[in-house]
Amino acid sequence: MPMEPDRAERRIPSVSNDNDIIRESIEAAERFSEIFERHIGAVSAYVARRVGPEASDDIVSETFLIAFRKRRRFDLTRPSALPWLMGIATNVLGQHRRAQAQHWRVLQASFAQSDRIATDDLDRSSAQLDAAGEIERLYPRIAALSARDREVLFLHAWGDLTYEQIAAALRIPVGTVRSRLSRIRAKLAAPPPSPPPGTRPQPRPATARIRLAEKEIIHGRP
Prior knowledge:
Blueprint: H1 5-11, H2 18-25, H3 33-51, H4 53-69, H5 82-94, H6 97-113, E1 116-118, E2 128-130, H7 131-144, H8 147-157, H9 163-170, H10 174-189, H11 206-218
Antiparallel strand pairs: 1-2
Helix pairs in contact: 3-4, 3-5, 4-5, 5-9, 6-7, 6-11, 7-11, 9-10
């Protein structure tokens, strides 16, 4: 008995680009589920690294709901929807300042559990430093970055996006992405400032600086 055409088509794995699927989903909404299946892993991993796995589910769900509702606005000249989805996720994260504050605690715990960390995760440098000796230096510096710089850093290092994809996600020029990453590299690699001569050494206020960063994030200040 010959197979019905529609059943045969359903059994053939889709090889369409994301833009083709989104175009079809405007008339056939169920097609958008393939976008979800293709990119749920990458978006979930990025969000979990930002806020921790416990807080990520709601943000990821909201990201895909917003994407579905705004699918008519997607730039159909772009073959991949991942930068668009990452941009939506970044905006949702920005609306969840308290969840972002939790990120710093997750980040600190993540660094502490690692035996070694990359000195430059931005370009996957092979140079390594002991995490125990570097956490107090790198952690406050990341917290001290502006909100805009942190978004670029996280999309590149944790979202694993290219410069061009970050530019699409944040709707900024590629040159701006390059300059921000260059500035971030310099800030993270620079030696700590020396205290003025004659001053007494002060204990490192890591906890106080972390709390300050959390307050800035909660109140939306860069």
